[in-house]
Amino acid sequence: MLFPNVMKGLITIFVVGVLVESVSVKAQSVAGIVTDQFFNGIIGQSDPGCAGRNFYTRAAFLEALNSFPRFGTAVDTRREVAAFFAHVTHETGHFCYIEEIAGPSFPNSQYCDSTNTRFPCNPNRSYYGRGPIQLSWNFNYGPAGESIGFDGLNSPETVANDRVISFKTALWYWVNSVQPVLGQGFGATIRAINGAIECNGGNPATVQARINYYTQYCNQLGVDPGPNLSC
User: Fold this and answer.
1) What is the pLDDT of residues 71-105, one digit of tens each?
2) DSSP H or E run through 6
3) Residue 212 in contact with residue 90, Cβ under 8 Å?
4) Distance CA 100, CA 86 (A)
5) Mind giving me the DSSP string for 127-194?
6) Cβ atoms < 10 Å from Cβ of 104
7) For the chain, how long is the longest CA-to-CA vector?
8) Which segments of the protein form a coiled coil according to its record (predicted)?
9) How far is CA 160 from CA 12, 15, 102, in A?
10) How confident is the model over 165-216, as pLDDT tens digits?
11) Are the C-beta atoms of residues 56 and 163 closer than 8 Å to each other?
12) How far apart are the C-alpha atoms of 178 and 26, rounded to whole Å?
């Protein structure tokens, strides 16, 4: 016969064990979700001649991830991974593009907000989209550079030349501007990334494309997409 204190201890151990197991399942590592098969399944759909084919790698993503422990901690890790890579897939064309298409020649290509005195533009540099999330504008390049450790205002091209920094800029933008709204549904993440142009009927085709990628990856990872998919 077990004494009451012993029985209480065993019950406590059992309950704690169940809770730890539950937490460990929910907090499944990002690396365990973004497998070679998952990553290569995305990049493998791009054209073999794409510049991104020789630039974006799973190893670079995982190395960049070490600097952002907050990634994968919102709502459900698998759902967050699905959302992140849905946007990355759309922004880069399955990891095909490192820089915005026609970015250097696009009208107003400098993407300079001259009213932002905290992060003033270098008149000889352009801040068009680069990297997995297509980081744009001086007010993003400046703080991203300060946080990550590169000169975002004077050397924005670093985002297109250094694969680890490139992924770091995407993760930096994600944890600061997108992750906080992830609990509101995937639609809120679209709004956080390109809502001014795409949401409220601005470009329903691109919104649907993002949703399609998201639901595809959710199904692939075995997680419910949740509500509020559109913006």
Assistant:
1) 999 889 999 999 999 999 999 999 999 999 888 77
2) helix 4-26
3) no
4) 17
5) ---BTTTTB-SHHHHHHHHHHHTS-TTT-TTHHHH-HHHHHHHHHHHIIIIIGGGGGG-HHHHHHHHH
6) 10
7) 82
8) none
9) 53, 50, 14
10) 999 999 999 999 999 999 999 999 999 999 999 999 999 999 999 999 999 9
11) yes
12) 20
Which tens digit of pLDDT belongs to each residue from 110-164?
899 999 999 999 999 999 999 999 999 999 999 999 999 999 999 999 999 999 9
Joined together, the tokens standing for residue 61 give 């993503």
Residues whose CB falls within 8 Å of the CB of residue 156, separated by 6 or more in sequence, listed in order: 125, 126, 127, 130, 141
DSSP 53-66: GGT--HHHHHHHHT
Q: Is 112 helix (H, G, I), strand (E, B) or coil?
A: coil
Q: Which residues fall within 8 angstroms of residue 206, CB to CB, at 6 or more apart?
A: 90, 194, 198
* Percent of residues, the chain, with pLDDT higher than 90: 83
Give the Å distances, CA to CA, from 145 to 43, 150, 156, 197: 26, 5, 9, 25
What's the rounded Cα separation, in Å, for the pair 221 and 12?
A: 33
- Cβ(103)–Cβ(92) under 8 Å? no
pTM higher than 0.85: yes
Kind plus residue range of the DSSP H or E element containing 205: helix 204-221
Rounded Cα–Cα distance for residues 34 and 226 (Å): 20
* Structure tokens belonging to residue 227: 């509500």
